[in-house]
Amino acid sequence: MEEKMNRLYSNVLNKLYEGADVENLIVATYLVGAEKDEDPILKAASIAIEQTTGSWVDVPGETDEIRERYAGKTIGVYEVPDFELKMDLDQTVPDGGMRFYIMRIGFPVDNVDDNLPLFFATVTGNITAMPYLKLLDVDFPKNFVKKFKGPKFGIKGVRDLLGVYDRPLLNNMIKPCTGYTPEVGAKLFFEAAVGGVDIIKDDELIGGDRVFNKLEDRVKMNMAAAAKADAIKGEKTLYTVNITDEVSRLKDNALRAIAAGANGIMVDVFGIGLSALRDLAEDPRINVPILAHCCFGGAQSVAKYQGVSSVVLTKLTRMCGADIILIEAPWGKFDNVENKYISRVIACSGKLYDMNTSVPFMGGGVIEGLIPIILDKTGNDCLLGVGAAIHGHPQGPRKGAVAFRQAIDAYMNGQDLEEAGREHEELGIALAKWGVYGKGNVKENYLI
Q1: Domains and CATH numbers, the chain
Q2: Which one, of 380, 300, 365, 291, lies nearest residue 330 by Cα?
Q3: 304 belongs to the catalytic site
Q4: pLDDT one-digit tens code per residue, 181-196
Q5: Could you confirm whether 377 is annotated as catalytic?
Q6: Which residue is catalytic, options 43, 134, 293, 399?
Q7: What are phi and psi of 97, to 5 degrees?
């Protein structure tokens, strides 16, 4: 007897999780909005088809055999709230109103395999032009992840390089962000390093060769400053030089920086692209930690009904080899949602098969008065990213770095931060200038 059922309802395209070959499916989870009378099962199947074997109308070459092997599979469609009764639906959603669904769609690994640009074409692709569609998460099967080498160093490796195991790490970004000469930068570098900073990075706004600041010049001068500071403080300093550039120049920039003595590199990851990061990280000649700055990532993630969740971007950045990943802390300059921040930290440091971890790097207007809330939420396996609060300390960047080490020590020793500020002049001055989270509105410190 001829099959009369709409093929978009068929078991070929709609699978129970238990009946799907999930070891060979990349399962994407979407938030999808639909008009009240739209059929969500058909909508999910249409998305799955559009992004794999078919189109908006049946085409002769898309056989059931092709669909079974290569079409996207609907794993689940869940409405929020979870209506069971039409009476409840009609009372809650007016005619012409919207209904929202969590849709989970599996894409065969064979469609993408070891091709990250094709992954984006498949899992986001044309459908991101639809209104009310956002990629919330991706479940990556081991068959896909095993092709990615991930971070070379991760949390343990970075700690091993620094010889620091019993506290969070401290980072400083050289300020001003750009426009300075290597000589000016080296002086600022030395002051922050000798005050107790573990890792110093270029700002995201200065990358590669600039007419006023050549890459190899700033590497040599900053590494000389690091050696001088290390001899005084008895600790090691890493410098992640920003090599961000056109992709055709990236590898050369990295190798030139390492040859000049750099013990770390940095990229603006969404400017260069995740595949470019992966190419750097998987090159055995690039044998230093890579710090990934997330600037431009927000353009993909901040819309509540569109784009790609920052958690997905963080997970992919780790898979592509970033040893350190910047995450904007929600209590400082940025207004991020706290639970999303925590999820991104987990994406850095949680178990991802056998892949190395990435160091979660907290940035965005970090001041001494935020140390307790950040570490309470994040734990100690993190990198505290401080820019202006070190260079803008009233006593200068050296004392600004000292103040942060005092704040970290107070937290690790269970001491009240303000009590520690009364004992240590540098910390006390910083707390008086910028305040303490929970004791006032620290957001007033920021101009944006």
Answers
A1: 7-145 (3.30.70.150), 154-445 (3.20.20.110)
A2: 365
A3: no
A4: 999 999 999 999 999 9
A5: no
A6: 293
A7: -80, 180
